[in-house]
Amino acid sequence: MCGIAGYWLNKPNWNDKQHQTTIKSMVEVLHHRGPDDRGSGWERDTGLAFGHRRLAVQDLSTAGRQPLLSQDGRYLLIYNGEIYNAPLLRRELEQQDISFRGTSDTEVLLEALAAWGLDKTLSKLNGMFAFALWNRRDKKLTLARDRVGIKPLYYGHCRGTLLFASELKALFRFPEFTSELDPAAVTEFFQIGYISAPRSIEKGIHKLPPGTSITFSSAEQNPKPEPYWSLHDTVQQIITDRQEITAESALGDLEFLLTKSVKDRLISDVPIGAFLSGGIDSSLIVALMQRLHGSPVKTFSIGFQEQKYNEAEHARKIAKHLGTDHHELMVDPQMAMDVIPQLASIYDEPFADASQIPTLILSQFARKEVTVALSGDGGDELFAGYQRYPYFVNRWAKVNGLGGPLRGALGKLLSLGSALPVPSRFKQAAQSRAELTGVKSFREYYERFNRHWKHPEEILRPEYFQTPAHSLADPGFSVDEAGWIDWMRYQDLHRYLPDDILTKVDRASMAHGLEVRVPLLDHQLIEWSWQLPGSLKQGNQLSETSQQGKVLLRKLLAKFVPQELFERPKVGFGVPLDHWLRGPLRDWAEERLSVDALESSGILNPTSIRQRWQEHVSGQLDWQYLLWDVLMFQEFLSNREQTV
């Protein structure tokens, strides 16, 4: 895995020293993404510069060094990622009498682009990637990102100069970069805890959406991203023409597709292992790795003293049954305290998924033994594993079944209840339900229920509040056509997966030079999953407390692991944040949530935040997620003062 950065000056008047100093500075701040090597290059006549940091995983020789020039001299490439079908593409290119200097997938990607062009090459790629391609003849710069958004890529203009990089911190090193927060991004962050593509926290800087490319030229400096793969189109086509599939046939297809995906992701010239939580997804990935590998796979898990969050024992039992070389680390609050000061600089933007803490600790732990790790991310989105899916379906059915007049009356009654002299938790529940009785559609219900701060205008100064800050994606089909579960799966695949889950994993793992591969997110597996009926994803029972979900994954895992080792209530990959904020993290949090600290931000209003903080530390209510939003935003602002 690697880090890339570059720019294209609007006025190519820099000398070699200016180029060297600037691109070196931009690339060096990405050292963590590629500690093994670095490379850079520039053209004085065009003002284009490319920089690269390399984490050597395939072809450890200098033949894999970037920027890499195509054999015909027309194209220059910098690239971050892995192309899993590179051997197949290489053979196809060799049949066209194209020779290779080394064995890296970088060279395969470059020569494919030179021989087949952008559209054909992107359609053939199977992998995770973000790259920049310079056409030296036509003076065109193309940026592209993988279908699901596993690898990041930012771009934007600064005083007419085009900038791009794997992480925002590289853009900050450009000498003329000016920082301005985007109010829409600030508002969205407090609504959902992260910032979704194409926005970034910086006004004028964008995330390239997954499955798109964008091409700049002197004549076109503000083009729009063009999709080469669309979840919208893929799902719409399958929903329209969904074929009948039996459970037996589906199980065979899943085993074939997932085994192939795992096998493809085992190609490496460096040590490889896997994250193992003891849950269904990671256990299945490890089981298939173990079957393919032939020797004990190195597996890694972490645990907590708080049993509610501790899956270490489950992971240990799975590892023992499968015969892996298992490594376990117990996490205490001091480890979290050691990690928290790093979070803002690692993520660059406000990011408030608290599982970033264990992900970072686990990545650091695994990196001591391996350079590549496979993870089970994606199983919940593909196979309907989230417990909130049946929860939302049942709650909406109850609310919607009341009818307009009765629902309105209930809303008024609940609003009155929130004003009664009862414990705070009852007031909060009554107020929340009163607001939800007024929604008119499942879409509106889902969006409002998912919000962290229901009314971010309460805590943001007017100049930093912008509404509507975000909206749900249009999947091209209605809830009635596909069903509630598939509609929610689409929303998660479109936004939550790339902008929360995959962002979390990429930054946490790359902070320690660890490459994480995600077998469940092979695009062929994603497309196939939409063929499945609900009975093979979430099951037939949709009670709010149902432990159904991932039916087909459970069936396949049962071929390798006894059911009693994995059939248990789902535990998310989280931390005991509620407890820590009242205990070991309390002083740290109080310092950042004090009236003075909140007011000095110039963005936040203290009143509502202080109220929730006091309710939380007193034990009246659990506001851990809302408070973590504010804490991570405060950390972001502090880091921004030092780096921008």
UniProtKB/TrEMBL annotation:
One of its GO terms (cellular component) is cytosol. The active site is at C2. The keyword Membrane does not apply. The keyword Heme does not apply. ATP binds at I302, S375, G376. GO terms for biological process: asparagine biosynthetic process. Pathway: Amino-acid biosynthesis; L-asparagine biosynthesis; L-asparagine from L-aspartate (L-Gln route): step 1/1. CDD domains: Asn_synthase_B_C, AsnB. The record marks D377 as: Important for beta-aspartyl-AMP intermediate formation. InterPro entries: Asn_synth_AEB, Asn_synthase, ASN_synthetase/amidase, AsnB_N, GATase_2_dom, Ntn_hydrolases_N, Rossmann-like_a/b/a_fold. It catalyses: L-aspartate + L-glutamine + ATP + H2O = L-asparagine + L-glutamate + AMP + diphosphate + H(+). PROSITE patterns: GATASE_TYPE_2. Signal peptide: none annotated. Its EC number is 6.3.5.4. Residues 2-219 form the Glutamine amidotransferase type-2 domain. One of its GO terms (molecular function) is ATP binding. L-glutamine binds at D105. Keywords: Amino-acid biosynthesis, Asparagine biosynthesis, ATP-binding, Glutamine amidotransferase, Ligase, Nucleotide-binding. PANTHER family: ASPARAGINE SYNTHETASE (PTHR43284:SF1), ASPARAGINE SYNTHETASE (GLUTAMINE-HYDROLYZING) (PTHR43284). Belongs to the asparagine synthetase family. This is asparagine synthase (glutamine-hydrolyzing). It comes from Polystyrenella longa. The lineage of its organism: Bacteria, Pseudomonadati, Planctomycetota, Planctomycetia, Planctomycetales. The gene is asnB_1.
